[in-house]
Fold:
Amino acid sequence: MDAQSLITFAIFAPLLGAVIAGFFGRLIGDRAAQLSTTALVFAACAASWVIFLQVFSGSLEAFTLQYLRFIDVGSFTAHWSARLDTLSAVMLVVVTSVSALVHFYSIGYMEEDPHKPRFFAYLSLFTFAMLMLVTAADFMQLFFGWEGVGLASYLLIGFWYKKSTASAAAIKAFVVNRVGDFGFALGIIGCFWLFGTIEFAELFPQIAAKSDVSVAFLGMSLPAMDLLGVLLFIGAMGKSAQFFLHTWLPDAMEGPTPVSALIHAATMVTAGVYMVCLLSPLYEFAPVAKTVITVVGAVTALFAATVGLAQNDIKRVIAYSTCSQLGYMFFAAGIGAYQAAMFHLFTHAFFKALLFLGAGSVIHGMHHEQDMRNMGGLARFMPVTYAVMLIGTLAITGFGIPGTYLGFAGFFSKDAIIESAYAAGLHNGAAHMAFWFGLIAAGLTAFYSWRLAFMTFHGPLPKAHEGAHGDAHDDDHHHEPHESPMVMLIPLFVLSVGAVFAGYVFYDAFVDHHQAEFWRGAIYTAADNHVLHDRHDVPGWVLWAPFVVSMLGLFGAFVAYIWKRGMGKRVADRGGPLHSLFYNKWWFDELYDATFVRLTRVLGDVFWKVGDQKIIDGFGPNGFAATAAHTARRLAKLQSGFVYHYAFVMLLGVLVLGALGLWLSGVWG
Amino acid sequence: MMDVLVQQLFFAGAEVWLAVMAMVLLVVGAFVGNRATAAISYASVLVLAAAVAFIIGLNGHPRVSLFGGAISTDALANFGRIMVFVTAALAIVLGDRWMKRVGLQKFEYPVLMLLAALGMSVMVSANSLISLYLGIEMQSLALYVLAAFSRDNPKSSEAGLKYFVLGALSSGLLLYGISLIYGFTGQVGFAEIANALPTSSKVGVVFGLVFMLAGLAFKVSAAPFHMWTPDVYEGAPTPVVAFFSSAPKLAAMILTARVLTEGFALATPEWQQVLIVIAVLSMIFGSFGGLVQGNIKRLLAYSSIANMGFALVGLAAGTAAGVQSVLIYMVIYMLTSLGLFAGLLVTARQGRPLESFEDFAGLAKVRPGLALVMTLLLFSAAGIPPLAGFWGKFFVFKAALDAGLVWLAVIGVVLSVIAAFYYLKLIKVMWFDEGDRPVDGIAWDAGLVALAMALFVGPISWFVLPVLEPWALRAAAILF
Structure:
């Protein structure tokens, strides 16, 4: 098959799966729904890899395939299409690979759930929407995919909709994303307004010519590119849970764990990064927007890492870690190292999915226990999970020997980012800040990642789990922690391979000497942007710094949770200001609750009780209805039943109409 | 001379045929007695069917003026006559079976219906003031008797008497108007009046016209000449009311359109204003008046008042599109109304007909099919798309908008929302109110008519409207 058919197949196979499982799931049964969706996504994954390898080897040219017209109004046109270039090829393999493994894993993880077809339908629907997003050739389809993944995310976070926290988390995710999407939509509208098109292929070449156009916005005169860049980035902030709009991501952990792995770690949340890289032709002409991205990314990387230090829920730790890693990707893009951002996105997908699925295995083995304080010593109950989680931890902490090509996936990508930040920071304050923030965050990452590993797998198992388990589970459960079935372990092995080798294998193509041949224009770098090249010239201490801080982090975690066991707990119990700050997530939820939520509620109350009930209902429907009933009763009185009344009304009518006629008639016009 | 007469009698064939057959059937009935009622009823239906067939045969023939310009056969007259005859036939079918069930079966019923249909046939083809009056009176006299048909029932007698007294008054007004116009123009033919208008006294003509309009408004039960309607609808036998609410209204509406546009085109700005007043008043009285009714027949009386108001909105536009919209509106209204009244006839409780809201409470539980049919008809009457009633209103309001009568259309839309309340109320009572008292068996004749009408306002109308629309336009176009 040629690449055109392959990509079409890869995009629509998951949709087919979603339709089969979603509409006919009850008809064909659980097993058939699981197998059909999983098989179709695996097929899509195979197709994606074939395409990617062709791109990787340079034998496939970029192309855009138009399927159908979407909107054609006046000068506004949008198409359903599939855009293939290196960027979308990378995303294709990331999305379909993780999705396929998650589908497979879910067969085991969701074994006891009564709504399997619905779950698999949502997963496949998500995959389809994500593929639409990454292969979009214009903003309209990008937005469609963007909202499609948002919908699937909403549905999956709230999958256990009977749990009120899950429903609330789903709504929160949806609402926070609306804020981002508002900016995003404004950005798209702005693009159309400025360029008269939303097709990337037509839009990008115009940017250089219009790079110094200014627009009036909120009473200020702003450079158009920066304004558009910031507006679009606001959308990315929402989707990728960046600082200020990050609050939904930890709550999204209410969804089933495979969902967290697929959507809230590997794919959907990286859509923002992908978009910024895709729009590199625009951002290269938007220095202010790039600075904003750098600062927000760096702050997020550090902020989320600090919060991750103090969380006790195994999934929340990983969620904040995701948030933090996304921050890395953004500031990499912000300083112009888009390739490094994409590279980190690529490797992160493997090791973060691995960590999440590993955590899922732990949760599964612990009978839905997620609090790490109730765990410990699981290494002897689930050795395989322990091993893969170690690989994941080594990968995320960026373990590797600087100056060599020995290291886990995260080593290559994260160090590339930190080096780039240093190189860019030599003549850019924001990048300099990002370098230091990124470095500190790397240390914190090591600490919380190892803390997770130590709290979960080492030490003694708390008493609660040795005897009867308090949960309302059937008695035929084994109450001891147990290793997960093969169906859940196989995806872990596959991802482990990725977490180990993805960095080494693709380093050269993504960010090193052959990056230009690999990307082939899919990412645009301005003539004065040498970040990727300059990073080779950084001093030696910069190369070693990430290694040192992550070792420090490892050492700290080792001390607090193994050597001086109980130290971590004592610090937490003491509840010092720093710990409270981190534990309470910098009080962002409380802050938002006190401001936006309460304000909105007050406004809503005013509009509802005063505006709607009193004014609109009072004078509108209800007042109107009362008036109508009143009028009707009075009219009914006229209807007396006496013929002479009727005759009188008739004569009166003739009189009035006659008078009207006389008044109207002058001479024949 | 002989040839001309034969030719004229040929083109008036439908009227001649109806007149002769009505007499024949009357004589048969007089000799055989009420035993022959069923046979006479079916014969009447056949007579009407034959008349329809004859008119369809005439269809497409250019306008022919008959009897010195008294009447003419043209597209509008053909349109009106076909509709009138079809509804009369349906009403005879409905009435005959129902009368039999309630022990009222008399052979005069079909004969009177034939005579009324003949009167309306003259009305829709009238081309002069004399034939206008003749047609109206012929129709009315038959209808007065029909209203009082259940003569042992005090309410029915009251209905007939009221109708007759007020009808006589309206005839007086009409005649007075006619005499004024004749006096000021010296003409009775519509075309001749139109020619004489520029040289006549405007005040006199308009004053006469107002009186004529009062008489015509009475016939379509438009406010403020509508007061008889609720009482007569409540008292008269239901099949008769079903007929009242349909064909006579269409005939009078066509007659009004014809006299106004053919005879008084020059006075359009004046009669437009008068019609607007009548239309607005009718919509107001019809919409608000229905809100507090407990009796369904009275409710439908107000509904028909409101509907005449909506139809007059189209007529007030004073354009071909306006007349077209009136024709479409009236056809849809007529059939919806027939369906609703047929629905009232379908069942009963221990022989007592269902007439009040309480009677309909919970009908959906005991007779879901009937409730569904009624619901469809009521939704259509309320103007809910995609049912036919919506399209009727759409055409009427669009005609008004195109003629620049924006505020009139706005009032119409607002009042149609208010009127929607009572239709929806009946739906709500049928489906959501408690009450599962048993009802008698289904009367299939009425049930089939109701079902047919429900199907008409529903899916069938989507196929009929594309045919009806150009047909009504052809009929309306001959006036301009």
Remarks:
- Residues 3-56 of chain A form the longest helix (54 residues).
- Residues 57 and 518 of chain A are 8 Å apart (CA to CA).
- Confidence is low (pLDDT under 50) at residues 467-477 of chain A.
- The interface with chain B takes residues 628-629, 631-633, 635-636, 638-639, 641, 643, 645-647, 649-650, 652-654, 656-658, 660-662, 664-669 of chain A (CB under 8 Å).
